[in-house]
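Provenance

Sequences were taken from public entries as deposited. Structures were produced by running a predictor on each sequence independently, with no templates supplied. The record for MFS general substrate transporter from Rhodofomes roseus is shown for reference.
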Amino acid sequence: MSEMPDPVDYHLRNASRRDVARSLSRSESIDEKKTATVEVDEKDVAVDDVSMDDMDYKDEALRLVGMERKVQFTDEQYLKVRRKLDRVIPPLCGAVYFTQYLDKTALSYASIMGFPVTGQGYNIVAFSFYIGFFVWVFPTMYISQRTRLGKYLGFNILAWGAIMMLHAIPKSFAPFFVLRLLLGALESCVAPILILLVSMFYRKDEQASRIALFYMMNGLSAVFGGFVAYGVSYTSNPSIPSYKIVYLLLGGMAIIVGFSVLIWMPDSPAHAKFLSEEERIAAIERIRDDQGGTENKKLKKDQLIEAFTDIRTWLIVLSTLLTNIPNGGLANFSNIIVKGYGYTTKETLILTAPSGVIGFFTTIIVGWWSDRTNERMLPIVFILIPTIVGAALLVAMNGTHDKGVILFAVYIIGTYGSSLSQIYAYNASNTSGHTKKVTINAMTLATFCVANIVGTETFQPKDAPGYLPGKISILVLLSAEIFLCLFMRWYNLHLNKKKRGVIAQLKEANGWSDADVERERQRHAFMDMTDQQNPYFVYTA
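Predicted structure for MFS general substrate transporter:
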């Protein structure tokens, strides 16, 4: 695994593509440098003058804007564009995530509504979703890189809506296993694509709150799903068990959302049809200074290698493991845990609904705070504290029947859920180079799958109704996550300090003024360079 290479040596020899190589090798005298700058401005700034071979390796945004900023927009113009984006992208992302979470967790409702598979068979059906997810997440993301993101996402939603409705047909283990496997494969593209879309259209100080706007749907869908299941549970037709009605309703909702995404979701700023050409240019220029770029259709070997050798990638993998092993258990067994304290099915469905409300508001607050303070890791630390307290209460109260304390513990445990939205925001704000982005997002979600598979196995039928080992695992893993978050924050700040040193040495070595440095910063923005290759990329702690 690699840390940042030696700063000046790396960036002078390796970081630049041809345009930047020309600019970094300019002139030994101030006058020569100025002359070279004029030549570059005339030859390279206009997109039309960049060869198509070069364009294939650079960001798609360069088809609309130049290597350097040619058009100046006012803050009011940027705000107008952002408002137009906000009217389309967050609502659609929210609808997708709402549908995905409902469909993924439908099995939890079905488990207490007459679902025909129980015991260890139920466990296997539950984690088959994550097997399909894990197997297909890398192929689906590399396919999405070659296609139009919005269209690819829409077709996947339509397909899983049909799969959801097919859950109403079988009565035995094998077909349910296959259907859940397919459902996981089709849903595996959702979070990585939504993260990419947010990183394309929004600045770093806007990303966490926009990701929170769709991630909060986990909480809202938990409330909605609980009440839908509660209402459906009153059906008394023996030929149509209530769990089948739930699957038919949720599958129909997914199909409606899929068509909406196909019609309205933009694929990138350059292809946002609801924006005028001037507004598309403004949408691209407003994210130039973040150095994150938009997209590139080529799978780049060097970025793939960097993604797998960057120590920060594996820190994210570890963080995702620590926060989502608990999720794997709670997502599928929370209703069973509450019901184990003597509540009826209908009481359980109502009593678990507040957990969704808590998750909803926690995610919103954390996303807002994260953008306002430009922090990603500290918010995770603070939201894990109530979860750890709740897990400790569940462990301490195991075997008792103090229902009030147990319910309180179940409710406050739900705050941990927003930690994954912060990990998504961390990826969006701290990775550049489109192939590297795609790879790290896929690795994050693959890890999410592994964690959830392990999580389902921490709640074994033999441990019912208390499930003490599962509760202890939540307490231990999330306590470790706090220390990991603090280290990740320190490490990003350490890398930023090194990058400032890189820029200072480049400035001295080339005799650049502050204006020259700003010009080079602009020229790096849409070259599809990785965060390690680009000396002007700044990490968010």
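Residues 1-50 have pLDDT under 50 and may be disordered.
The chain is about 70% helix and 0% strand.
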